[in-house]
Amino acid sequence: MDNEFYCKFIQPDPSLDSFVENIGMFHNPAVEAKEVVILPDGRVDLFFMRSGPNESFNVFLIGLETAPEQRSIPSGTFAFAVSFRPLAVEYILHTSIADLINSGKNLPDDFWNLNDDNLKNLETFTLKITEKITELLPQTVDERKHRLFDLIYASNGEMSVKELSEKTGWSSRQINRYFNQQFGLSLKAYCSILRFRASLGHIAEGKLFPELNFTDQTHFIKEIKKFSGVVPKELSRNKNDRFILLSVLKQK
């Protein structure tokens, strides 16, 4: 058991909920690399990662994914992660990730001034990250954007662009311009990713038929395969726990 790939994710302090979805860590103590498939989940990840106990931590910012990606996690890898909601890109990270679709970039190793004491375990990391993000919380947030993301998340991406526009008082064209400039994809594309992620919860429970507003079973299978690379039945089996996101859902 001690030589198995391990990951754990916790909910942030409620005061950070609009910007942070979870905080976590993973460790691969095995002799061999861990082969995984990263699935699109609508989150923006900040990683503090090292490849061995005597290595220093490197910092990476990973943008939104629109397709599954095979990755190999080398033996000895240890990482902490903050999974941000998109609103954090503008208000916490003060950047755009439009050029980071299905990719990422290195940040300075002293980003946010984390040191070895902050990177001992998930508890010390969470304390430091909570403290840092709390310092960065904006005094005000554009209410249209706040409302938009609340609706997107509450509906698991099932609300139409037209309805979202009407409920936020923000034109569809302006919303899509914001999404493309800030995140590198359209609102509709982002909503499809969230609907896929919500479907993973059902697939983790063995429900291999659409529970959300897919046109029919064929459409459901097509969308699941688009974002995971496999059909729902194979995804549910999750051979060798290679779909980490699904493994985490099954632990709940």
TrEMBL record:
Q: Which Gene3D superfamilies match?
A: Homeodomain-like
Q: Which residues are in coiled coils? A: none
Top-level taxon of origin = Bacteria
Q: Kindly name one Pfam family recorded for this protein.
A: DUF6597
- Care to name a GO molecular-function term for this sequence? sequence-specific DNA binding
All residue ranges annotated as the HTH araC/xylS-type domain in the record:
131-238
Q: What is this protein called?
A: HTH araC/xylS-type domain-containing protein
**Which lineage do the record's taxonomy fields give for this organism?**
Bacteria, Pseudomonadati, Bacteroidota, Flavobacteriia, Flavobacteriales
